[in-house]
Design a protein that fits this description.
By secondary structure, the protein is mainly α. The protein contains five helices and no strands. The protein has helices at 7-15, 19-42, 52-65, 74-102, 121-137.
Length: 138
Amino acid sequence: MTSSPNVTELLVAWSRGDRDALDALMPVVYGELRRIARGHLARERRDHTLQTTALVHEAYLRLVRDEGLQWSSRAEFYVAAGRAMQRILVEHARKRKRLKRRGDPRPIIADVVDLATTASLEDVVAVHDAIDRLEVSL
């Protein structure tokens, strides 16, 4: 039986510029990223069009694009992935809000998920903005 690569070791190697570590990382973290994405999507509207896979891929792409990031642990990486997923959802809410305000009759082809029906778009955006301000002040 072969042991799976250590996520933290791959993250540290990737942070140091090892492109092979980045290639090896996705298969190792994919299952956990899908679990995180399913948790986010479970709180969303039932009729949204984005699937778990699309949310995982968008968040992963955002994380790997930031070349200056230094990862010290897998927990740090997973927290960052969850935050990236949350930001994707908020950006989509803002887009929907803009289109709704303009009265744009075109349907929104969601490249990210719709927000939960239990909260208005304005409330979700306001909460996210407040969290951003709190993070800055800490």
